[in-house]
């Protein structure tokens, strides 16, 4: 009996302990349901974890294992200790079950998200200014980089060239229109209010001046288109024909005027005969160059059929020229009854010359723009847009070139003639040497090749002249360019038209009123020459574009080996005589 009491007492103590453990588990379960333990979810625990927990309950003496379990599962000490002891990390659902008190676990889950929440809040704060600060230097270079892009070598320049020359020409045209209008008014006033002698004189002028001048304008326009069409269709024949027919026609016109046996007509006839002799000598001198000139002319005219409306600027300028000359002749008639008649007529002639040259260079710039874009970009541009560009942006360069290029070309002809006539007169040819130096300097700053650069890149006249000549020097094309006779052929075509007009008008005027023969002969030659030069601007522009574009890019597939082969022939032929610039004694 005494032994049974201790046994029963031990059974009661064990039952009391089991009840206390069950009550603790129930209270712990209710605490989880009430939310005392936050952020922990129950998970399914495999058999291995249950065995480990049972071992822990059976061996409470392992204090270091119990201390590791109290640590946060993400604590590095627990991870290292777990790896070293090869114990699996208990799930978060098991940690509150084997801890003596769940109280210290509540701050751990509550404080763990606290440092995590500011991280996503503060991380975008330094990131948002970074793209803005990085984008700011990236957007600024594209905005500042296009600023220097529109340079002098762009094909789409939108700036006006040679504004001073443009202003002078516009001012001149305003003054010319005002003068012509005033002189026409004076002519009409003379017909109505003047005395009978003045009325009779003006009627004779209208009767014998106006019909001849209008007929000359129509004849010259017809001849202009005829010469241009013939040169485009039969260039090999027309180059020879123009060189020799110009001499023959000017000689015929001079002989005809001398036959009238008037002092004025004799003077004009002698001038024409002298010109015919010089023209014949020039034709003999340039005969060896005709073959190469013809080849270049044929090559340069190849793009013209592909550009169907390339002749429209020529039609426009010839129509405007015809209307302006009709008004101009009325102003000349009105100047007959005004003070300082010779001075006024000379001013009208100079104005008409400059205006006609500007119209010719407008055609030159338009054609050059179309041909340059064809060579450099392989594109067919609008002739209308190129014409609008020529009469607006590049008009100042056309006005400046119209003043200087004819003078420079005439000076070159004189100097070349002096080189051919070299003799023993030291004084004469020392003067020629001085003139050649001046010409060389002037020609570098003003030449007819400048119109290609003006039309292509919108450069000023002087800059375009320098750049064009620099291109020729870089490619070694100076002898070839100097020996080109295309401009001479176009000039002599105008001489042919002028001579034909002189023959027709002189014969007509001598029949009806012989007193006006010399004056009308000069006037008809002048009008015929100017009209033909406007039409012949097309082939001359094509040849200029061919030379300049080849000098800029000789490897272009649109160019063949014609120029290169000719350079080789010129270098190998010791008997080849380039266009003389200096007399031989000075060139050494």
Automatic annotation (TrEMBL):
Which InterPro entries does the entry link to?
A: Choline_transptr-like
The record lists the organism as Salix brachista
Pro residues biased stretches: 104-129, 139-149
Q: Where is this region: Disordered?
A: 1-38, 81-155
Q: What does this protein do?
A: Choline transporter.
Q: Which UniProt keywords apply?
A: Membrane, Transmembrane, Transmembrane helix
Name the principal localization, coarsely classed. membrane
- In Swiss-Prot or TrEMBL terms, this protein is called Choline transporter-like protein
Q: Which residues cross the membrane?
A: 164-185, 206-227, 239-260, 267-292, 338-356, 485-508, 520-538
* Subcellular location, record wording: Cell membrane; Membrane
Family indicated by similarity: Belongs to the CTL (choline transporter-like) family.
Note one Pfam family from the annotation: Choline_transpo
Task: Give the Polar residues compositional bias ranges.
Answer: 86-103
Q: Name one GO molecular function term.
A: transmembrane transporter activity
